């Protein structure tokens, strides 16, 4: 039967000396570790408190209304909404990134994404020395009819000039109920065992939001899982897992907090001559405009600046 087969696999896994994608720190059960090893993601229910999420939401909405200015903050806006009806509110804002410079915002985010409870889980994938490399609030707006609220299928590793991939993990926390109607995450289980694919902008009729690169060639027939989540649920997933999200067909905004962590003993790589050259060029152009530094800032610099040690000691990142 399926259950006895699963029990046998768990027994073999728990007695095996080596696992490629997880560490044993007595938090994940053998069943959960086996699931992540095979699928590249694991959903943990009710990991972040409602109180912490609501505090962060309040800070976010103040920024959208331009009641507070955050130095260095990157605000990404939805292509279709910006063109049609921009007002100083959350309507056009699709993502907030790089808010390390705002103590209140970073403190409230920190409680959400760097609580000891979350870091205990992160340690299962990165080991004990942990860097928070990239924090982001995702505010998927109601689709304006151009389907621009979709996020093409992609692998997060495409954006990262550091390795090894197996010591990087994303924690993606739902700030409210997330379902197929408001554009939940869609994952292709098992694709984390493959390699980094070529990415570029998909040729979508309504246009594509800035930096929304997609995998050039993946099997559209590959089984997919829609990750429907409740407020406070967190999914952890591998940076090679192919994933994306559908459009938001509701009138509300679908908010989530995303944080990428890496083992502090990861190392930077030169992406020249690889499929990541296109994203390197785009990031350098944005950074050069933001800091008025021409081409003096490197792709690696943009990540070294963002990274924050959140547990243990900073080794090579």
From TrEMBL:
Pathway: Lipid metabolism; fatty acid metabolism. GO terms for cellular component: peroxisome. It is an enzyme of class 1 (oxidoreductase). SUPFAM superfamilies: Clavaminate synthase-like. One of its GO terms (molecular function) is phytanoyl-CoA dioxygenase activity. Its cofactor is ATP; Fe cation; L-ascorbate. It holds the Pfam family PhyH. It comes from the Eukaryota. It catalyses: hexadecanoyl-CoA + 2-oxoglutarate + O2 = 2-hydroxyhexadecanoyl-CoA + succinate + CO2; butanoyl-CoA + 2-oxoglutarate + O2 = 2-hydroxybutanoyl-CoA + succinate + CO2; 3-methylnonanoyl-CoA + 2-oxoglutarate + O2 = 2-hydroxy-3-methylnonanoyl-CoA + succinate + CO2; hexanoyl-CoA + 2-oxoglutarate + O2 = 2-hydroxyhexanoyl-CoA + succinate + CO2. One of its GO terms (biological process) is fatty acid alpha-oxidation. The keyword Oxidoreductase applies. Keywords: Dioxygenase, Iron, Metal-binding, Oxidoreductase, Vitamin C. Its EC number is 1.14.11.18. Belongs to the PhyH family. This is Phytanoyl-CoA dioxygenase, peroxisomal. It comes from Sparus aurata. The lineage of its organism: Eukaryota, Metazoa, Chordata, Craniata, Vertebrata.
């Amino acid at each position: 039967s399926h259950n006895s087969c699963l029990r046998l696999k768990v027994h073999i896994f728990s007695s095996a000396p080596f696992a490629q994608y997880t560490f044993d720190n007595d938090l994940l059960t053998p069943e959960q570790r086996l699931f992540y090893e095979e699928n590249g993601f694991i959903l943990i229910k009710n990991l972040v408190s409602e109180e912490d999420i609501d505090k962060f939401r309040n800070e976010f909405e103040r920024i959208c209304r331009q009641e507070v200015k955050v130095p260095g903050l990157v605000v990404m806006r939805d292509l279709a909404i910006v063109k049609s009806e921009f007002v100083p509110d959350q309507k056009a804002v699709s993502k907030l990134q790089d808010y390390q410079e705002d103590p209140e915002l970073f403190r409230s985010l920190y409680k959400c994404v760097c609580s000891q409870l979350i870091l205990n889980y992160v340690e299962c994938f990165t080991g004990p020395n942990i860097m928070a490399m990239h924090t982001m609030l995702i505010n998927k707006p109601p689709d304006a009819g151009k389907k621009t609220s979709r996020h093409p299928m992609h692998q997060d590793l495409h954006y990262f000039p550091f390795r090894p991939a197996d010591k990087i993990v994303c924690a993606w926390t739902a700030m409210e109920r997330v379902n197929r109607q408001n554009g939940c995450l869609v994952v292709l289980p098992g694709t984390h065992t493959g390699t980094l694919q070529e990415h570029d902008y998909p040729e979508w009729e309504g246009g594509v939001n800035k930096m929304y690169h997609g995998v050039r060639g993946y099997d559209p027939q590959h089984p997919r899982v829609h990750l429907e989540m409740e407020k406070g649920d967190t999914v952890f997933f591998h940076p090679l897992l192919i994933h994306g999200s559908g459009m938001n067909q509701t009138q509300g905004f679908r908010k989530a907090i995303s944080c990428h962590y890496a083992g502090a003993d990861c190392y930077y790589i030169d992406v020249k001559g690889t499929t990541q050259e296109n994203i390197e060029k785009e990031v350098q152009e944005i950074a050069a405009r933001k800091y008025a530094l021409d081409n003096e800032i490197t792709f690696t610099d943009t990540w070294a600046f963002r990274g924050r040690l959140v547990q243990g000691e900073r080794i090579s990142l």
